[in-house]
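Q: Structure for this?
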Amino acid sequence: MIGLHTIFRSLPHRYPAVLVDRVVDCDSPDQLYAIKAISCAEPWYQDLDQPDAIDLEYPPALLLESWCQAASLLVLAGRTIAAGSTLLLGRVGGIRFLSPVIPGDVVKHRVRLDLDSGDTFVFSGDSVVAEEPVLQVGSVVLAIRPETVVRSEQ
Amino acid sequence: MSTRIAAALRGRPELIASDDTVGRARFLLDPNEPVFAGHYPGAPILPGVCLIEAAHHAARAMAFANGMKVDLIELNSARFQRPVRPGDELELALTGQRSEGNWLVRAELTVAQQPVARIVLRYDPSPIRELTAR
């Protein structure tokens, strides 16, 4: 099991953008399981203070981001990214939102690495809550790119 | 859109113009959005998934303006071309088309005329009852 200390060492993300709580299985180089516990204490819920007018669904975009962070951890578990480079989300496809996720749910992301070209990584997989599928991921592409790509215009 | 929803961004795209096939929206990205603090400390850029959310919210607003309620079924594709930063003004150009009972929305996102993302979303549409009952 890999906990938050290792996740913080691997990912540049910090609160409130760290959306993985624990890696539960990364014994294989091309597969990883990670846990994200959904909480109403996350800032995305801060404005929802009218009990009769609340849609509790966790933002679908953030569920996908959480899955992508799990995919990043699979890449970063097996290698060190050279200084001056960073791992970026390039494209995604075939993402199906099967069932709403709400606070209290414990989401398990199942990530499979389908293609590794050295600097580009293609993943697929799904996410489940209590074994019920909530997210289907057709493909997610992460790529190692120079940091200047994200910093140059600053 | 009476129900308030949890969202990665506190701001929402503003629909400038739309009919049921073409829409335009604008979204000024507030530097105080909570997500920037952690993505990344000292080097804030908008997470790509937030562009997906912006396109989704703009598509929902476009649907609502045309008497439709829509449920997101699938993010068919998203391609990220350039980083988006705090204070950027995002422009969203949307086209919607009916396709086998679904509503397919293509969104081109730009900042200062430069493409930042292309996103395709698929929805299950239904008429808004309050409007159709009159």
